[in-house]
Design brief:
Length: about 170
């Protein structure tokens, strides 16, 4: 007699994912609904919506094509190099660039010292260190990524030598 599918397998076949996925998705919708409900009472709602629409347009029509083109150029340069590396450096470049870009986006008002009087009044500090700190963090991200890539290359080279050594020891 054929086995009766369990409730979970029937659920996965019907829904396409685990029940936890649905619970998390419903939680996200609930949080979004709460935020929208809170924004309805906001007097600057129109300005928020205009800013949000402009951010979508700027990202989708300007930024996405630019970083997709940069990523295509990076992968093409690695693929087209004369000495094709065993370990691709692409992700070791992508990750620090992405992190530095997100940090720049997050701290851009401080870096360009937008709202300097308000920041000074609120904190008693200037925004002068923002640019230097962002540059140092970016340098650290790239240095860490280069160190990890070098370590990975050295490990791969050592593994390749270990595999080649027994072959050299065998009489031919």
């Amino acid at each position: 007699m054929a086995e009766v599918p369990s409730l979970l397998s029937r659920w996965r076949r019907f829904y396409g994912a685990s029940p936890l996925h649905l619970v998390l998705l419903l939680g996200c919708f609930a949080l979004t609904g709460y935020v929208v409900f809170q924004l309805l009472a906001e007097p600057l709602l129109v300005r928020i919506l205009v800013w949000f629409a402009a951010a979508i347009v700027l990202h989708d029509l300007v930024l996405f094509p630019l970083y997709a083109l940069a990523d295509r150029a990076l992968t093409s340069a690695v693929r087209g190099s004369r000495t094709r590396p065993r370990i691709s450096p692409v992700n070791y470049i992508r990750v620090p660039v992405l992190a530095a870009g997100l940090l720049l986006l997050l701290f851009l008002p401080g870096i360009i010292q937008q709202g300097a009087p308000t920041y000074l009044a609120a904190t008693g500090q200037t925004q002068a260190p923002f640019l230097t700190r962002w540059l140092l963090i970016t340098l650290g991200l790239f240095a860490t990524s280069a160190l990890l890539y070098g370590t990975r290359l050295a490990y791969a080279h050592r593994q390749a030598r270990r595999r080649a050594e027994p072959e050299a020891d065998e009489p031919g």
